[in-house]
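Note to self: keep these together.
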Amino acid sequence: MSPTALTTHAELSLADGGTLVAQVTALAHGRVRYVVRAPHVRGTFVVVPEHLQDGAVVPSTVRVQYGDGAGPVGYYEHRPDEPIVYGVRVHGWTGDLDPASVPDGYFLGQYATSLRDNRVHRQLTSAVRRRTEAVIRAIVGHWYTLPQREALLRSAAKVKAPALAEHEAEKAAKAEAEAADLQQQRALARRKLNAVLGIARRIPRPVLRPDPVPVRLPLVDDRGRPMGSVRVTEVTVDEAVRGSVVYEVTGARVHGRFTVGRDIYRPLPLPEGIWVAYGHARQAHFEDEREHEPTVNGVRLNGAWNRDTIEDLTATAPKDLPARVRTSRTTGHSAPSATARRASAVLRALALHYLARPDVDALQLAAAQDNVLGQRADARRELRKLRERHRAAEQRAQAHRSRERQYRSLTVSAADSRDGLAALVA
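Structure:
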């Protein structure tokens, strides 16, 4: 069936006066061409259903193309038979039009221009714009009343259906992968919450009282070379900072106190690492200055060392540990290299001495139970957020799979297109 067999004529009233005579031709893929003649207007308009990515499966808006032809043209190329309105050639298109409710005015958009022969785009004058808008309202209104409009929309949808189905499949696969990852995160968060609840229910175990008898610890550098020894005396056990021990250290150019406990920035409910602070810590966090901060090689040090594992902790490793020299209450700089080496040896020796205590498990439980209520609230909050994100990812995946099925149900069928187009001349 040739396009000329699908041509009809229509007379349409214009809102700003006059009558428009149009030769209406149904084209392939749901496009409808209007060759119009009206006072001060002549040329071709093509109504094209807009099939947009991530839009409605069946197009719900239309685009009006100025001029004939189905293929794309360059920015400075004219289409055949572009409309002439008040002697001005109108170029481009107007999109995103709801055929059920075309605006009264000011809807042509930035892509409706006047393209001169010298390849210069000009804005349309007010008179040209108003007359063009009146023509568009008339032809889009006529298109909306076509009895087989839905068939035309489906015919247009079939053109991009395979590509859009693949697009939806990719988005669905991405959402499904995200949902699977979130499912694993939820399982980990649930196990963490159960661990926190288990810690909260455990009965605290007794810890040893401070031993007034000092012990002597040897110091070695990262290569195992001797650096002398220090005398270590326990000052407090499991007091201000739960699960910690405060040591008084003297000898080998070291004098002052160190607080040793479990890692404070622990990723797990039960701390598995080590934390050593310079000075007598009264709290684990936010202490700019501590009492009895030690001097090493005559340099006063502050700060702390925190590590979330003790698997590789030895008398010689880790090699370089934090050693900070205070310059004011809140500022400081790194200690000299010789001071840092000796401070690192002291930190390693104290950490190993602490971990060798017979009540180290009781101290570990005390440290874990210190903030168990906060950890429980954080774990529940994290689990709730993961549950919401998981549900949202599953819903997105289901929505994209549903859209993919709808797109795949659309096939480019010439027979269906002819059925829809033939109704225009029935």
